[in-house]
Every structure is written in structure tokens, then in C-alpha cells.
Amino acid sequence: MIQPIDAIWNNRAENEELVLKPFLVIIFISLTTFAQSAPLRITITEGVIEPLPYAAPAFIGETGASNEVANKITELVKSDLFGTGLFREVPKSSYISEIDTFSSAVQYSDWKAINVQALLTGSVLVTGEKLSVKFRLFDVFSNSELGKGLQFNSTKQGWRRIAHKVADEVYSRITGEQGYFDSRVVYVAETGKKGSRKKRLAIMDFDGANSKYLTDGSYIVLAPRFSPTGERVLYTSYETGTPQIYIIEVATAKRTVLKNRKGTMSFAPRFSPDGQSVVYSLEQGGNTDIFIMNLRNNSSARLTSAPSIETAPSFSPDGSKIVFESDRSGTQQLYVMSSLGGSAKRISSGEGRYGTPVWSPRGDRIAFTKQSRGRFHIGVMRVDGSKERLLTASFLDEGPTWSPNGRVIMFTRETQGERGVSALYSVDVSGRNLKKVTIRDGGSDPSWSPLGK
Amino acid sequence: MTKFSLYFYAILVIFLVGCSQNASTPFSTNGVLNGSSSKFEGNVSDPSSIAFFKSNVGDRVLFPIDQSDVDQSGKDILLGQVDWLQANADYKIIIEGHADERGTREYNLALGARRANSAREFLVSRGIESSRIQTVSFGKERPVELCSNENCYSENRRAVSVVSNLNF
Amino acid sequence: MYYGHYISGFAHLGLLTGLFIGPVFQKDVDPVEYSSVSLISEQDFIDLTASNISPSISEEASKFTPMDENDDKLNFIVNEESKILKSEGPEVVLDEPLEPTIKKPEIEMAVTQRAPKISEKLKPPISEMVDKLPDIQNETAKFSKPNKVLTPNNLPQPEFNLSKALEDATETVDELDPVEDTIKASTSNIVSSLRPKSRPRYISEPNFESKSESKVIESAVSDEIQSSVPRNTLSNPLTETETDNLQAAIQACWLRDPGSLAEDVKLTIFMSLDRNGRVNPNSIQVVEISGGDEDAQKVAFRRAKIAIISCGKNGYKLPPNKYERWREIEVVFDPTN
User: Fold this and answer.
1) CB-based contact (8 Å) between A355 and chain B?
2) Looking at beta carbons, which residues of chain A come within 8 Å of B68?
3) Which of A242-246, C169-173, C297-301 shows the lowest mean pLDDT across its residues?
4) C-beta atoms of C299 and A115 within 8 A
5) Is A40 an 8 Å CB contact of chain C?
6) Is the CB of residue A27 less than 8 Å away from at least one CB of chain C?
7) Taking CB atoms and an 8 Å limit, are C253 and A48 in contact across chains?
8) pTM
9) Quick one: CATH architecture of B3-164?
10) By the CB < 8 Å criterion, does A241 face chain B?
11) Is A179 left (phi over 0), alpha (psi -120 to 50) or beta?
């Protein structure tokens, strides 16, 4: 039985409920405590979409001869970071303190004062043909290093790859996601007039450097796709006169055809994530369906069977599903089925036609080409078709490919008219940072490799 | 010209035509067939010449957007092709299917294949042996008209019959 | 750090249980005799009781002029409120002080009748309490002058429920035994000295029918409070403008990246600030975090931390006299929308 506390206090002779006194006292103490320890709470839902300010003082050449390479590497790292649209370099003119040696201590307050959030320092040593690069990254507002310093060793010729690897480390430590700079893109280089274009397979660094041709242009080639290791490329070729699938070794340019029945066309090939199978479209008697071929024993199996056009298949990163394009409903739409075939579920739902679906390496999204009201768009959607977002719009955009980290999409953009040309463009998955990839010729059908090892 | 020399020249032409082609395939690797498979198409006034086939018979059937069914005018042209092929039994035919540029690459390859096949089926239904016909699709890779509006597009949506007397 | 929460949660449960079971044990209380001593005129009383709860709020507010701490009425209201809290009556609802709980009428009645007596009894019990329980003393170290604790910070509530209070006044009057009341009131001073700390938090919740009224009262109250400067209390809530300013300040430095996986991460950061509004970087810690994988969470935390530190480099603009209210802040970063 509980009595009012005043009774307890003022009538201490009453022992009836004395045991409850401390109980109630505790209640009131705790109420106080609670009241005292509950801090003010505010909620932030908006922020600013701005690049992260960072500083990258020039890498230090450990010998006079190393300076040139050191500067080139620094500039390439900065160019990679700048190209993402997520980083903004705070220029040297703003520096308060300098980085004189690789091992000197960092005056964090000097960098905080100029609002630098991340600081990259490095040193480069060239000895003969060998190249060694060290770097450290600092989280300025935490007054500490961000991750461990690393050293890369390679040949002098490999300086670009080292710079890309440094940039990948900086990117991944700051964004928490894998980078994509140490990667290559295979595409179709185009020259000549519209209507009689000369098309050649070409491969280059993702930023356009180091490009070389893999075929000679005497036959039409289309839509090359990298293998999961980046060592082989599947593509469609008219070398035999009708579209057939070939595999080419990137290192040697040696190619082989995937045998198919006479009188059929095969095209739109893609590797399975384990690299052992190829999913592709086979046309016979005017009808196109999706098939899968086992590369080890050359056996093939049918995955779709419909009088409609089924094409452009793409595996999910775990290999369990395939997304493809079909006009079974009357217009081109996107469907997902098990990689063993069987029933397919439609995932595209907007107005217009959907094609060229490609599953993101992250597994969470599918990129596609959408045609609607006379315009072409590159878009992304969740794998169930929800949250469709269009990233571009133009006369003709098509054929997206994902960067290894699923953040950036490269695609083909073609201009209209007799003098129309194709070029490669890239855009961030948020739709920002659309830009053209610099290549010598025209270009189409890009495919992005995985990260280099 | 005497009959003998006519035949002589015809045979010469045939050999020359044969030599100018890749012996292993009549198909073009560069998609420049477009009905122009050889320089030696013969004289257009010769009803058995390729030139005659192209200009008088009509070597192409056009299609509306996204369609691959042969319409009436297409059927008329194809009927003419049937006649010519029956009259020129040693010729075979490759039907190329094409699409306009307003579509994605792979879909257009498949669409071109549908169109080529439509034309082929019509010919077969009118008595041409299936073994005389081959089909190929060039998708949107080889437009004949290069502008970016419907009058060019309508010309590009086509199935072109290329006649050749090579074996394949 | 959250033992206080646990204890208070337990205590709340206990009191709620007492709430429901209490009446079973309640002693029969002798009917209270009272003489009508009123602070408002007869006519006013009739007006008040005749009206509905909501419409008359504005009028009632004017009847209770902006308080200073020495206003007996206000003090008494506080006392009575807390008294009701401990009386296990069914109307006691600790968690929802904003609702026009039935206890209000009792407060009102008390105001009209008991004010002088109660206020006299105010001080001694508190100091007694403090002497007896060193724990409380430590806990209340911030509260150096208990009597100052009885500030009318939670007044807006009782006033708003005034009309309803008066409506029910007749029924509930008998709960106030004149003799016991004094005692209750005196001991409830302890309660009132301790309990109301939590109340200011709720005041900023717009549960009033007329929000403008609450603002009038609130600003009037805070004006009075600021003038009396009880710096040892949590009794001064930040105004909406003040929290909006803080929000906007942090927002300006919170870097967002729409394509990033960190955008799936929702997290709450605790920070403590000095009197100049500067964040103590070592105090920054994650209270809770959800969404995204481990890497995404690390990035989200780093971005949130930078947002807080960067924009607070020169100290956030916060009212110095309300320091106790904002010396510790939890900031929820929620990009998911």
C-alpha cells in the first residue's frame, strides 16, 4: 500500500510503509537523472551536394630524375579524382603549410583552416626502369591518417596504372566504396561516313589513354563485352558474313568463333560471372531467343522460347538471374528470369520502350536504354523495376556499361543527320557529372573491365 | 553480236563475277552488299542480269516502323522476284534485313532478321526452294539514306534481295 | 550513460502500475471542507466553467499575467501538479503532460485556495530533502538553489487546461485535505524541484490547440526566466528559431553524395559543446546507426562528424543563458527520404 510521501516524511513514526520510502525516492532521483541526461535532439535531413575539398601537394621525387614522373603521377591522381565530380582540389596557392618531405608531420590545423578534409602526400623513386611510389592519406578533421600508407612498385611504363591505383585507394578510403580508375574499356572505334562506317574493336584505359585496335576493320564488329577477369572479350562479328560470336584474347588479339548452326545468327553475347558460360541471342527462321553455351564443352541450351524477340541478356553478379529485353508484350520491355531459364517477370513499367539492360556490379540496379516520345535516355532502376531514374536524354543514347564499382555508367551517344557521329560518354549513377570520353575516333558500344589486379 | 559471242561474253562475265567475289562466301563482311554484290551486274536490258533484277524487278521491300509483315506492295515486288528467280534457276538469293537508326543495336539486328525472314517466307510460299535463300540482318548498321527523319528512315526499313550465282 | 533512462523507465513503469493498482489501496479521504476564497470573480468563474476547453484559452492566459518566479500562483500550480502526480489518482499521466489531464482542475482549485500557505512551506522541505539524500544532492549539483527550481516553465500547460480544470474543480476538490495539503505541498516541493526538469522538453511540442498562445506564453515565460537567470536548470527550452538555426548551420556542412551507399545510412551523433558553442571533438560519438554496410556506415559517420565540426569551427550560435539545454546535443542525420 502506497502512501503519500509527505505522510512518510512528516510522520516518521509511521512505519507502515517505510520500506517504500526509498523506492519512491529512487523514482524521483531517477526522474531527475532522466531529465538531466536527456540531451537536446535535432534532426538533419538536408545537406549540400558538393565535392569534398582535398589537397594533394605534388608527390615528392626522391631523386632529381624522379621529379618528372612524380609530377605526372600527382596530376593523374588529381585528374582521376576530379573526373568523379566528388572531389575538389584546394589549390597550392591556398596552402598555409607545405609538405616538404614525405615523412614530415602534418600540421592539421593549417589544413583545417583552409577547409581541407583530406590530405594526400606521396613520394616517387625512379631507379632505371623501376618505379616505386609511396603515399599517405590524412583525415584532417580527425587529426589522423586515414588507412595505412602504401607503396606500389612497377616499371616506369606502368606509371599510369600506379597513379590510378593511388587514386583508387584515396577514393575508396574516403567514399567507402571501391574505386574504378585502374580499369580499361573495350569499345568499337568508328571512322568513315555514316552508312559505311569502318568499325574496329579497340581497348583503352578508362580515361582514354593507351588505346589500341584489336581488329582490322575489314568486317563489321559490334558490342564487345569483357570477361569477369578482363582478359577476354566477347563480341559480334561479320567476319564470316553473318553476325557470329567471337572471343578475343586482349593480350594477344587472338580470336575464336563460337560455333553455331549454319543459317543462324548469333549476337549480344555476355559472360556469366564465373566466366564459364556465355549467354547470347540466337536467331533462326526470323525468330530470336536467348541461349546459353558452356565454354568448356561447347554445349548449348535454350533459355527462352517465344515467337517474340528476346535479346540483350545480362547476368546478375551472383549468376542466379538474367535480365533481358523482349517485345512479347508488343513493345520492348525488360524481363528477369532465372539463369536456368523458365518464367520471366517483367520489371519495366513506364511509358516507352526499354532495352539493353545491364546488371550493376553491386547487384542492386539495372541500367537500360529507354525510348520515349522520340528521345533516348540512359536510365537505372532497382532490380524489381522500382525507382526508375533517367540519367540522360538526347537524340540517341544507348548501350550502358557499369564501372567496376557501380557508380558510373558509360554509354554511346550518337548525333543526328548525315554527319552524325557516335561518341562515348560517362555519367554518375545519380545523373550528375555527364561528360564525354576523349578518344581519337568515333566510338560506340563501350564495355568496362573489372578493376586491374 | 552473234549468239556465240553473247554466250561467250555471258560466260566470261559469270567467271569474272565469280572471281571478284570471295570464293568461300557470297556474303559481304562489310555490309556493302546492298544489292551491289559485284561490279559485273550485267546490262540492265538483259532480263537475266542482276542489273535488270534490281531496276526492273525491284530488289527491296519496305516496312513501317517496328513492322516486319510484308504489305501488298511488298508482295507485288516479291512476286516479281519469284518470277525472276524461277527464270534464272542458277541464281541464289540473300535477303538482307535492315532497320532504321531509331532503336537499340541488338533489337534492330533482330528486327532486321525478322524482316528478311518475312520476305524469305513469302518467296518460299510461292515456290522458291528454301535452299536457294539465305538471310542476314544488318540491323541499323547500313542505312541507305543518312538523314535523321522519316523520309530517310522509311527507306532504311527494308529487306533487300541480293541475287548471286555463287554457291553457298 | 543511460542508467538514468533505465531507472526512470523502471520508475515510470512502477508509477504507472501504482496508477492502476493504487486506487485499490487508497485510503478513504474525508471530504474536504473549504471556504470559498477565490482569486477570480464569481462571474469569471462562471464564464470559465461555462465555456469549452479550447476557445477560452486566450482569455485565460490573460488572466494569468506573465510570471516571475515569486508568483505564488505559479509556484502553487507547479506544486499542485506534482502533488497530483504522486497521488496515484487515475488522472496522473507522467508521460503526457501536454494532454488536458484531469489533474489540472486540482491545480486550479489549489491555486484559488491554497496559494499563500503552500508557498511558505516551499523551502524547508527541499533543503531537508537535499540533506537527507546526498545522492540527490550530487544529482542536483546543477541545481544550486532548489527554490529557484520552481520556475513557471511548465505553466503554459496548466493554464491552457484552465477551463477544463475549473470544470472539474468541484469533483476533485475533495482530494485536497487542507491539513494534508500543506504537508503534501511541502513535500511535493521536492517533487516539483526534481520532476519538472523533464517537462520543458515537452513544452516545445505543439500540442496546444492554439499554438500562438503557447508561443506567447512560452516567450513570456522564457523572458521571465531569462531575467531571473537560473542557469542551473534545464528549464529554458530552445525556441524553434534557435533549433532551426542550429539545424541550418549543420546542414550547410553536411556533404551529400546521391550515388553513394552512405546515403542509405541513418545515424545519430552525440556531441557536447562548451559555452561558446564549440563542439568538443572528443565527445563526438555514435548513438545509433542503421542501414548500409560497414564501409558505408564509416563514411556516413565521417561525413556527419565533419559536418558538425566544420560548421561549428567558430562555435554555433546558441543562447548562452540556455547553455544547460544545449550543452549536450544529439544530432540525427537522416538522408533516407
Assistant:
1) yes
2) 286
3) C169-173
4) no
5) yes
6) yes
7) yes
8) 0.70
9) 2-Layer Sandwich (3.30)
10) yes
11) beta
Q: Phi and psi (nearest 5°) for A209? A: -80, 165
Nearest-neighbour CA in chain B from A291: distance (Å): 14
How is C69-128 classified by DSSP, letter by letter?
TT-HHHHHHHHHHHHHHHTT-TT--TT-TTS--THHHHHHHHHHHHHHHHHHHSHHHHHH
Query: Would an 8 Å CB–CB cutoff place A190 in contact with chain B?
Result: no
Give the Cα separation of A240 and A244 in Å (integer).
7
For residue C184, the chain A residues in CB contact (below 8 A) are: 4, 6
Instruction: Read off the pLDDT of residues A34-76 as tens digits, 9 standing for 90 and up.
Output: 555 578 999 999 999 999 999 999 999 999 989 999 999 999 9
What is the architecture of the domain spanning A184-448?
A: 6 Propeller (2.120)
Question: pLDDT tens digit string along C152-191?
Answer: 443 333 333 444 444 444 443 343 344 444 444 444 444 3
The interface residues of chain A toward chain C in range 400-429, judged by CB-CB distance below 8 A, are 407, 428-429
User: What CA–CA distance (Å, rounded) separates A18 from A23?
Assistant: 9
Give residues 113 to 142 of A whose Cβ lies within 8 Å of C.
Answer: 115, 117, 139, 141-142
The pLDDT confidence band at residue A4, using thresholds 50, 70 and 90, is low
Cα(C312)–Cα(C326) distance, rounded to whole angstroms?
14
Which positions 95-134 of B are in contact with A (Cβ < 8 Å)? 101-107, 109-111, 113-114, 116-118, 120-121, 134
Chain B: give the shortest CA distance to residue A286, in Å. Answer: 4
Of A3, A35, A37, the C-alpha closest to A17 is A3
Q: Residues near A47 by Cβ (< 8 Å), separated by ≥ 6?
A: C251, C254, C255, C256, C307, C335
Domain coordinates in residue numbering, chain B = 3-164
Contact A291, A283 (CB under 8 A): no
| C238 confidence band (pLDDT: 50, 70, 90) | confident
Verify whether the Cβ–Cβ distance C25 to A52 is below 8 Å. no
**A281 at interface of B, judged by CB pairs closer than 8 A:** yes
Q: What is the CATH topology of the domain spanning A52-175? A: Rossmann fold (3.40.50)
**Residue ranges of chain B with pLDDT lower than 50?**
18-24, 34-35, 37
Task: Quick: pLDDT tens for C94-153.
Answer: 333 333 333 333 333 333 333 334 333 333 443 343 343 333 333 333 333 333 333 344
User: Within an 8 Å CB–CB cutoff, is residue B36 touching chain A?
Assistant: no
Query: Taking a C-beta distance cutoff of 8 angstroms, is the pair C191, C109 a contact?
Result: no
Residues of chain C contacting residue A4, judged by C-beta atoms under 8 Å apart: 86-87, 180, 183-184, 187
CA distances (Å), origin C164, targets A280, C49, C50, C87, C152: 77, 7, 10, 20, 20
DSSP C40-64: S-HHHHHHHHHS-TTTTHHHHHHHS
pLDDT digits (tens, 9 = 90+) for A254-295: 999 998 888 899 999 999 999 999 999 999 999 999 999 999
Q: In degrees to the nearest 10, what's the CA dihedral of B88, B92, B93, B94?
A: -160
Q: What's at A407, amino acid-wise?
A: R
- The β-bridge relationship of strands A333-338 and B92-98 is unpaired
Confidence of residue C18 (pLDDT cuts 50, 70, 90): confident
Residue A109 has pLDDT above 50, yes or no: yes
- Residue A148 near residue A135 (C-beta atoms within 8 A): no
DSSP string covering C166-179, please?
HHHHHHHGGG--HH
